[in-house]
Specification:
Chain A: V-ATPase is a heteromultimeric enzyme made up of two complexes: the ATP-hydrolytic V1 complex and the proton translocation V0 complex. Chain A: Pfam families: ATP_synt_H. Chain A: It comes from Drosophila albomicans (Fruit fly). Chain A: Keywords: Hydrogen ion transport, Ion transport, Membrane, Transmembrane, Transmembrane helix, Transport. The complex is a heterodimer of chains A (85) and B (858). Chain A is mainly alpha-helical. Chain A has one domain (5-77). Chain A contains 3 helices and 1 strand; from the N terminus they run ααβα. Chain A has helices spanning 5-24, 32-58, 68-77; one strand spanning 65-67. In chain A, helix 1 packs antiparallel against helix 2 (32-58). Chain B starts with 9 loop residues before the first strand and ends in a 10-residue tail after the last helix. In chain B, strand 9 (336-337) and strand 10 (343-351) form a beta hairpin. Chain B folds into 3 domains: 2-106 and 303-380, no CATH class; 117-166 and 174-182 and 190-290, Alpha-Beta Plaits; 396-499 and 535-829, no CATH class. In chain B, 61% of the residues lie in helices and 7% in strands. The chains are: A mainly alpha (85), B alpha+beta (858). Chains A and B meet through helix 1, helix 2, strand 1 and helix 3 of A and helix 11, helix 15, helix 16, strand 12 and helix 17 of B.
Amino acid sequence: MGAAILPILFFTSLWAAVGIAGPIFTPRGPNQKLIKCLLVLTATCCWLFWLCCYLAQMNPFIGPKLTRSAIYIISKSWNNPLKEG
Amino acid sequence: MGSLFRSEEMALCQLFLQSEAAYACVSELGELGLVQFRDLNPDVNAFQRKFVNEVRRCDEMERKLRYLEKEIKKDGIPMLDTGESPEAPQPREMIDLEATFEKLENELREVNQNAEALKRNFLELTELKHILRKTQVFFDESVPAVYKSSTSHSSNKYRRYLQMADNQNEDEQAQLLGEEGVRASQPGQNLKLGFVAGVISREKLPAFERMLWRACRGNVFLRQAMIESPLEDPTNGDQVYKSVFIIFFQGDQLKTRVKKICEGFRATLYPCPEAPADRREMAMGVMTRIEDLNTVLGQTQDHRHRVLVAAAKNLKNWFVKVRKIKAIYHTLNLFNLDVTQKCLIAECWVPLLDIETIQLALRRGTERSGSSVPPILNRMQTFENPPTYNRTNKFTKAFQALIDAYGVASYREMNPAPYTIITFPFLFAVMFGDIGHGAIMALFGLWMIRKEKGLAAQKTDNEIWNIFFGGRYIIFLMGVFSMYTGLIYNDIFSKSLNIFGSHWHVSYNKSTVWNNKMLQLSPATSDYEGTPYPFGMDPIWQVATSNKIVFQNAYKMKISIIFGVLHMIFGVVMSWHNHTYFRNRLSLIYEFIPQLVFLLLLFFYMVLLMFIKWNRYAATNKMPYTESCAPSILITFIDMVLFNTPKTPAQGCEVYMFWGQHFIQVVFVLIALGCIPVMLLGKPIKIMQARKLANVQPITGADAEVGGMSNGGGGGGHGGAGHHDEEEMSEIFIHQGIHTIEYVLGSVSHTASYLRLWALSLAHAQLAEVLWTMVLSIGLNKEGWYGGVFVTVVFAFWAILTVGILVLMEGLSAFLHTLRLHWVEFQSKFYLGQGYAFQPFSFDSIIENGGSASGDAE
């Protein structure tokens, strides 16, 4: 159980691009400071939100409880055929 | 350019204007909108001010313009509104404007009076025409009634009879009186029937009849007929339904009585000739006169229309000009005339960065007025509290308004608005998280933004629309963030998106599935892939309707606390910026540091515990880190604070998550508890010591610490700017005590208060699910062509409920809760909010407010 490295790397670098590289490349103007602040805040909030959801599902304590019809539909449409027997 | 992070620096300036140039300079400053004038004559009556006559003249002009506007609106003529704002005219032009308005008003009044007189005339003629027609009917009706009594139906006889009726009016009365009446009149008594004819409004008719009957003891005879078409009342243009009546009576006494009653009921009487031939002549005369009158009326209306159309072109322009003139004179009334009577002195607040612009404007004004003496703008030193000015653009204006609604920031303290631009929509989105509803909101906001010029030009009075339009950027951002959180919650109209493939798989075989109504997947087996769904919530949870909430509750409660604690820490850190700016060393050491330490050691530690629990415990681990051993963070926290011994855990499990946790917890709680007396007593004791020192050595070298006594709510002036009022020591202790209790108890209650993020998102998700199960899924169940019709109806119903309940109602609710979180939980950590807003003298704002009666700057 644990975290896969690829999603973590991808999303962290995505929000780092917004929150760290973004402020470096904001155009000069009267609102430059404000735009930098907004970018940093957005990146922080969104990254943290994604991270919490990822960490919460990393080591789940319970599994989903499915009805019979739900299992049947899943086996058909999510390419998850039931074992014989 | 100033920034939004703090309010602008303001300076109190004195302005010396030459009397001739004053008008033009104030006009320029009004166009600029950067100066707030103070009233230098506060104790002078409004009627004793210098320019009261000019203001009166402006009022008079406005009255005339309003009269014109009313007349134009009555005729439904559209008024041209180019949206551009003409400059305030020179004082000498004011006389021209006055003359123009006077002329227009007089002309219009004259035309109206004429029209009214003509209409009255027209009304009388029309009523006369109806009377003549109807009375003919009355007299005609009496003929067949008598005729019926005779038996022969010869048409000759009938024609002869009519001739007789025409030529002998006495016979008519004889016919009306009937046989008995004729016999009764034989003895030579003059029992000739008199009659009056007139018109009365239909509503009064029954009462009229009754009154006649009672007053004349039934000795009068009333016939009436309704006039089918309504007649126009000349004074107010209403359409009134009237009836024609004719009253027959005998004798003069009854005549006077009848006439009096008619007067009382406002029935108009008309002279109706007795002979039918005369009546016909009169009718024709009346018709010709009506034709003539119609033409004259038409021409009068045309003339009036032309006058109004010509006025309508310029009306908006004139309104703006007059309002500007009035505003300038109101402002000039605030000025002081100096001793030499040559120049006017004004005091005003100006933003420091704009002094150049203002001086340019003043120079322009002096040039325009042709004066030689340049105006002088002098900066003054003052201890007064300057107004708070935040320079906003159309985007930041709405967020600043949200903050100002709670309280305008104190002068130069940290402005929460720039952070609110992101945290507000984000916290809203945590409560609202749904891709579909977020998309609806974002599209609505986007439409308003794209069409903002057009929509802003149509000035409506609809409050609700104005509120929505004013917050279009907020709505747009809320929608966009909601789409993001919806992606993470994996919720679009209560369904999930399966983009990356679920990381949970069913490994039961067919017979197990066949024999069990419900089956649970286990994270310890290969049911769970081992790594989580890469972006957001796994789509299988939406399918697992029975225990989705259990899993999501644990998740959402934790993130609510995480974001709540981080938001509050952010707030406390803002207070550090305030203390350093105002050089408030005492507050920095004895308030900020213990507050931060308290918050970090208790609540941020709890957040860290959450992350540790997420990391350490897993179903596939060995004891004691298996999922059944995971301790409840809430219980851990409570035991920590109350120094309880934790309950003995189950077999194989441990109480603590990591080595040294007990020791660390004890240390943290002790330090945090130790912070409380520091917060409570640190600053007051230091102040007491400083005062004792100042008393012993009476050197009034303003100690920075003494000067910086901005305790528990005092407004922040510049640090070290001299002494404030010496507050009593007991007051200071009390203030500090209140502040400390508020903070300590508040930290617990505010942390719990952030759980509303969980509560509202749960409610939203469940409402969406109810709409799906109870409404839309039923619609999708039916097959065939009638299923198509049915699903269309059901979809309409579902859409209305979605927009009305989920987007509007839940949106409003989440907006309110987010606002509360910002105003109370976030801002109470650092915000004083005791300033007053900067209200510059600006023509734009005056004209937007429709030129209120006192268009003055304050």
